[in-house]
Specification:
Shape: elongated
Number of domains: 1
Largest sheet: none
Distance between the termini: 22 Å
Length: 160
């Protein structure tokens, strides 16, 4: 039974990283599912309150980092609210078309077009499109690093 649960935990962790390519998958929830499978399926009460507090803090940091990096780059280059909305939708759409390249090309083109429709100059619209891609990639890298740290903390807690 423990072998199957271990496979499920590893699968949850892998799914949490697949979520970077398919943002419609809630990666952080998959990560937490792995923690819960261990806590309630394998070794009840081995994970301490300090473990859960640290993981909650990291989860909050992930959400903040995601929001701040995207918001920073878009505001820096003067994005309209419509471009922000279109960027979010196009990242989801882009994940289904030529992943991972669709995650870069589709958001860039859709935000670029949206900015042009809002009467921005071509160079301004181009920079907002670039900012969308940079914001997405930056937040993805930040999330990957933080999720890796969360998994390392988990492994340390169960081994030591």
């Amino acid at each position: 039974m423990n072998f199957l649960l271990t496979i499920c935990i590893i699968a949850c962790f892998i799914i949490s990283f697949i979520a970077f390519i398919y943002p419609i998958i809630p990666g952080i929830l998959a990560l937490w599912a792995g923690f819960f499978i261990y806590q309630f399926g394998m070794n009840d009460l081995q994970l301490t309150k300090s473990f859960w507090i640290v993981q909650i803090i990291f989860t909050i940091i992930i959400f903040i980092a995601d929001f701040i990096t995207n918001s920073y780059f878009l505001k820096k280059y003067g994005s309209t609210k419509w471009s922000e909305r279109v960027g979010i939708v196009s990242i989801i759409v882009g994940s289904f078309f030529f992943p991972p390249f669709g995650l870069i090309i589709i958001p860039f083109l859709s935000v670029f077009a949206t900015e042009l429709m809002h009467k921005k100059a071509v160079n301004e619209a181009f920079m907002v499109g670039v900012a969308t891609v940079i914001g997405f990639l930056s937040s993805t890298i930040a999330k990957a690093i933080l999720q890796t740290i969360m998994i390392i903390i988990f492994v340390c807690y169960i081994l030591f």
